[in-house]
Design a protein that fits this description.
With 341 residues, this protein is an alpha/beta fold. The chain folds into three domains: 190 residues, 3-Layer(aba) Sandwich (Rossmann fold), CATH 3.40.50; 55 residues, no CATH class; 61 residues.
Length: 341
């Protein structure tokens, strides 16, 4: 009988699964376990370990589907930590170069980049962020092996950290047990609703809204994430209260923008409040013609400032705006002491 194969990079991620199910080690294959309905494989970290090990197992056993559960890092601070997200497409980075090879997993979710080494600095994170918002070490190799074997693969990643922040490895180790338990609880809820896809493929008639292609893509990604956060699509839609936006007397495209903004706010209220507060304290500088760029990870009370000067008066206006800038409030915002959430 064919069985699903659950696949993890580290034993710590798989530990609650090994305890919950009646898994037994498969003789002579390190890291492979079996029970009545599932196989479970622990590959080790990195694409060069994960891919060959999965390919070997797929060649020896009857596997119906591969399900990868694990940890991923966020390349954007707007992604809420400790949420579990389905992966749509996976790309490969090697030696700081993006490879022209990708795999579509078919989920309504976020894209991810598999890297040949750990991403520890914000400079590399900014480079990768242009391609996808999440990063891991194994998924591309798993998708490659599955595709060669002609077996479907799906992946769900718990977002553990924002890449480029300090002390990431220590924090992930400290919370490893919590993360792995969350993965088990998610999988059990996923398995119970196997006949009803968790993807929000619901036929909602967006009457009164006008979504450009970009806005529609954002809507579907956010709706998928909100469905996971609230436990179901119905609860996510209830929290959105779409009619309150639909009934506004404004243009259909404006309604679509407002709806997407509300989705983002529900998904990450702290990030939304922080963004609005930063806009507020920057308003006078913006009116003075300055462009302000805060750090992507928002860990430091700093920013880059640029301005276009054409006449002496422009300098005077800019200097006054800089003198009035509330830097103490910026420090409090970054440290979380001035947020109303």
């Amino acid at each position: 009988m064919k069985k699903k194969l659950l696949i993890f990079a580290h034993r710590g991620e798989a530990k609650p699964f090994l305890s919950y199910f009646d898994f037994s080690p498969v003789p002579k294959i390190d890291g492979l376990y079996e029970e009545e309905a599932y196989f479970l494989l622990i590959t080790g970290e990195g694409p060069w370990k994960a891919g060959p090990k999965l390919a070997y197992v797929l060649g020896k056993f009857e596997v119906s589907e591969v399900v990868n559960l694990g940890i991923a890092g966020a390349l954007r601070s707007s992604i809420e930590l400790e949420t579990i997200l389905p992966i749509r497409n996976v790309y490969l980075e090697q030696n700081s170069q993006m490879q022209f090879a990708s795999h579509a997993l078919g989920a309504v979710g976020l894209d991810l980049i598999t890297c040949h080494s750990r991403v520890l600095d914000s400079k590399k994170a900014d480079l990768l962020d242009a391609f996808a918002p999440l990063v891991d070490r194994e998924l591309w190799a798993l998708a490659q092996a599955s595709e060669v074997a002609g077996i479907k693969i799906s992946a769900y990643k718990l977002v553990s950290d924002v890449v480029g922040q300090s002390e990431i490895c220590e924090r992930v180790k400290e919370k490893a047990e919590v993360y792995s338990q969350k993965l088990l609880e998610f999988f059990l809820s996923l398995d119970k609703t196997e006949d009803q896809s968790i993807e929000p493929k619901v036929d909602i008639f967006w009457e009164g809204f006008y979504f450009t292609t970009s806005l529609e893509n954002k809507r579907e990604k956010l709706l998928s994430s909100l469905s996971i956060k609230f436990g179901s699509l119905d609860q996510a839609l209830s929290a959105l209260d779409i009619d309150s936006i639909k009934n506004l007397e404004t243009l259909p495209k404006k309604k679509a923008i407002l709806l997407v903004e509300k989705m983002q706010s529900l998904l990450n209220p702290v990030q939304k409040e922080l963004s609005l507060s930063l806009e507020e304290i920057s308003l006078e500088l913006t009116k003075a013609g300055a462009q302000i760029k805060f750090p992507r990870d928002l860990e430091r009370p700093s920013f880059n400032l640029s301005a276009h000067i054409e006449k002496p008066e422009d300098i005077a206006v800019l200097v006054k705006a800089m003198e009035n800038f509330d830097y103490l409030r910026l420090i409090n915002l970054i440290e979380g002491r001035a947020l109303n959430v």
